[in-house]
Specification:
The chain has about 300 residues and is of the alpha/beta class. The chain is built from twelve helices and 15 strands. The longest helix has 13 residues, at about 80-90.
Length: about 300
């Protein structure tokens, strides 16, 4: 199939791109500049120069594809505006047999979840993603016999050198790890390659629609992850727990998201035959440190 992809150079989008190309799909990846174009081309995609905020720059590529995956997060204060522009454009795709639109949301739309919750749980979004439920609804409401629509809520990614867990590895390598809050909160986590595989399964399953969580269901606390970092860093890092009020002053609503206690389940994803290959950050720290070092050297 021919798939239009936003965010192909980002953390989520890179994993999706790799999985789709591996599966034999043609991927037209939206990029903002020649550097991004070279990166996606090297990984087997066809670059489409444009900007989410300028739908005219990518509409033809999206319309010409069999389906579209929105995995981009626009940098800076216009993230919500750019996401809305993408939703507007993708929900207006003309009818086409078996066309699909996959929207990448965030696990933080669930809010606090100290007891396990699945895709049917009501939403109570953290402030930093407060606008995403409305965008999810617009995607899902656009479903028709000619358009299947899907929302994926990835957990916190790990793997390679990026993201929140990548920052923890970097901090451990630099001998000081800061934890927002007491660290007893659970993070819903997902290995980047496993996430890419879920997207590929959704693309390849004509009946797949609705909401899917992507989570390894390891239910690890932040403290459990941090405790093993020193075993594989060059020096034993110091760990400082930053009180949430103090963290908010420096990080804003991002601090509250990092402090969320969430135990998440993904039964609808598993019903597609998907299963994560990794189930733990703490149990794979040696491997993740090696991936992080390779990623930083690249």
């Amino acid at each position: 199939m021919r798939v239009f992809l936003t965010g192909g150079t980002g953390y989520v989008g890179s994993a999706v791109l790799e999985s789709l190309v591996k599966g034999g799909h043609r991927v037209d990846a939206l990029v903002r500049n020649s550097e991004g174009a070279a990166r996606v081309q090297a990984r087997g995609a066809t670059p489409v120069l444009g900007d989410l905020l300028q739908p005219a720059s990518w509409r033809a590529a999206a319309f010409g594809a069999d389906g579209a995956i929105h995995a981009a997060t626009h940098p800076g204060p216009r993230a919500r505006e750019a996401d809305a522009a993408a939703v507007d454009g993708l929900t207006s795709l003309p009818p086409k047999d078996q066309r699909f639109v996959i929207y990448t949301s965030a696990i933080w739309v669930l809010g606090p979840a100290p007891e396990p919750v699945d895709e049917s749980a009501p939403l109570n979004p953290a402030e930093i993603v407060s606008w995403r439920p409305a965008h999810e609804k617009r995607i899902l409401d656009a479903a028709s016999p000619q358009l299947r629509t899907i929302v994926v809520r990835p957990g916190i990614l790990y793997g390679s050198s990026r993201g929140i867990v990548g920052d923890l590895l970097k901090d451990a390598a630099n001998s000081l790890v800061r934890v927002v809050g007491n660290g007893e909160n659970h993070w819903p986590l997902i290995y980047d390659r496993d996430l890419g595989e879920l997207y590929a399964r959704i693309v390849n399953t004509p009946t797949a629609s609705g909401v899917y969580h992507a989570n390894d269901e390891g239910d690890e606390t932040v403290n459990e992850i941090v405790a093993v970092l020193g075993d594989h860093a060059h020096t034993q890092p110091s760990v400082r727990h930053v009180p949430l009020p103090e963290a908010r002053k420096k990080m804003g609503p991002y601090a509250d998201a990092l402090a969320l206690d969430q135990r998440v389940r993904s039964p609808r994803a598993r019903a597609l035959g998907w299963a994560p290959t990794l189930h733990s950050v703490a149990g794979n720290v040696a491997r993740l440190f090696e991936e992080w070092r390779r990623g930083k050297a690249a």
